[in-house]
Amino acid sequence: MNATLPRPRPPAPLAARRRVVLLAVGGYLLMLLGTGLRAVPGVSDWLWGPLSLLGLVTAWAAAFQLMLPVRLGLPYLKAPGLDERQWQRLAQAHVSAYRVVGILILLGYLYFQTADRGHSLPVPRDSFTWTALWSGAMLLICALPGALLAWTEPDPPGE
To answer: What pTM value is reported for the model?
Structure first.
């Protein structure tokens, strides 16, 4: 079986790529809001459940586009014939994503340390909330290089 790489598409306009990034971030925040509402006493399952599900579906649908940058016409690691600028932009997006994830891990650590010291900060208590947080973190780690590239890569000249 001969596997062929997808043909490069023309780059999507910057505004369209930024909409995909905003949909992924907005979907994840909506999922967090839904799971956060679950902990509030008196909030019906009919409110937090659909919010969480809508956020999850939106975040994954948009992040799928970012995990495969070729869908947006952006360079990807196995693309044939990448020029030096494209390789440099890919490397820069991965390094920036690595730094962002490191900062978020540090902020999460500080948050949970502060909450553990007796401050009245909300902390996940059930497996559903932990699963939502971890799946969101894995989504972020996989989609962040593509999101940074989609957000920062300029439109091609003449468009």
So the answer is: 0.80
Q: Mean pLDDT in runs of 10 for the chain (159 residues)?
A: 58 90 93 81 79 90 88 76 82 92 93 82 80 86 92 79
Q: How far is CA 2 from CA 5, 30, 81, in A?
A: 10, 42, 19
| Amino acid at site 89 | R
Q: List Cα–Cα distances, 38 to 29, 33, 44, 93, 110, in angstroms.
A: 14, 9, 8, 35, 23
In whole angstroms, give the CA distance from residue 89 to residue 94.
9
> What number of H helices and E strands is found in the chain?
4, 0
- CB neighbour list of residue 150: distance below 8 Å, 6 or more residues apart: 17, 18, 20, 21, 66, 69, 72, 74
